[in-house]
Design goal:
Helix content: over 70%
Order of helices and strands: EEHHHHHHHHHH
Number of helices: 10
Keywords: Membrane, Transmembrane, Transmembrane helix
């Protein structure tokens, strides 16, 4: 029987025995894990520009991440009779450790690590069974809906800040937006985008096999770059200016600065997120050239290069 898990890790009967599973990982998974381990080791000696919440935990967690990632990459080569469950448990441990480092310890480098840990786990898992696939779809829908909802709230608060004539109200609004930006928004951003990546890697859709999936991926990454590369700083500048104006007893009309940029930035992000939801609903465009080539491959041909 041919494997239904091309380009992924899979269970193969060990030579001479049919009851001993042999868990294999492809080269792309191994390289991803080793890059993650290298990133973790480099992060232990790199000074991050933004202070972390728990500096005493930063280096130990990075070391743990490096050990788990390197172990997952090397162990299948050292031990030829590895079961699937322990390897996937290790993959989940890697994702959890990286998530803790990013969102609890507060190390921004771990956000990059999540883009390595989640795809590695998805590729190791291979094609999901129905129950697991539905659970992942539900998680993606919930995270995406939350992301859109938060974006709507941010646009609404931007309008309030732009139209209010009371400096105290403007300052309070931007302060609330800052809280959302530092708490709920990053979780929704990464949960929606990375669950979408995991869905693509564990289902027939892939990441660049269909135009609508590829466009959604570009939108998700683009909105993340917009949020972390521009909107966060613009929002902080607006909040600081509003607080200074409120403390000085001036009116909200005494400062404009980046208020408009914050508003239009969140509007742009919201429009793109709504477009991504419509792409998921209508699935336009058909297959890409890569998708057509993948379909033309012999069924069950796995890429272990």
């Amino acid at each position: 029987m041919t494997s239904s898990l091309p380009d992924t890790a899979r269970d193969v009967p060990a030579r001479g025995r049919t009851d001993a599973p042999h868990f294999e990982i492809t080269r792309k998974v191994r390289v991803t894990l080793l890059i993650h381990a290298a990133l973790a080791l480099v992060a232990t000696v790199v000074t991050v520009p933004i202070p972390v919440r728990f500096p005493q935990l930063r280096v130990p967690v990075w070391i743990a991440i490096a050990v788990v990632a390197a172990g997952l990459a090397v162990l299948p080569e050292v031990r030829r009779r590895l079961a699937r469950r322990p390897m996937l448990t290790g993959g989940w441990l890697l994702v959890v450790l990286t998530t803790v480092q990013a969102f609890v310890v507060g190390d921004l480098l771990a956000l990059l690590g999540l883009w390595l840990a989640v795809p590695a786990l998805a590729l190791m898992a291979g094609r999901l069974r129905t129950r697991a696939r539905k659970a992942l779809v539900a998680a993606h829908v919930i995270a995406s809906g939350g992301w859109v909802g938060i974006a709507i709230v941010m646009v609404t608060m931007s309008v309030i800040a732009l139209t209010s004539t009371d400096a105290g109200s403007v300052a309070a609004t931007y302060r609330l937006m800052e809280i959302f930006d530092l708490t709920l928004l990053p979780w929704a951003n990464f949960a929606a985008t990375l669950s979408g990546v995991a869905l693509g890697l564990t289902t027939k859709w892939g990441l660049i096999r269909y135009y609508w999936v590829a466009i959604k991926l570009v939108i998700g990454i683009g909105v993340l770059v917009l949020a972390f590369g521009f909107l966060h700083d613009a929002l902080e500048a607006s909040a600081e200016a509003a607080a200074q104006v409120a403390a000085g007893g001036a009116t909200a009309h005494d400062f404009g600065l980046v208020q408009g940029a914050v508003f239009w930035g969140f509007v742009f992000g919201l429009v793109n997120l709504l477009a991504a939801m419509l792409l998921s609903l209508y699935k336009p465009g058909g297959k890409t050239r890569r998708g057509l080539r993948t379909t033309a491959r012999p069924r069950g041909a796995a890429d272990h290069r």
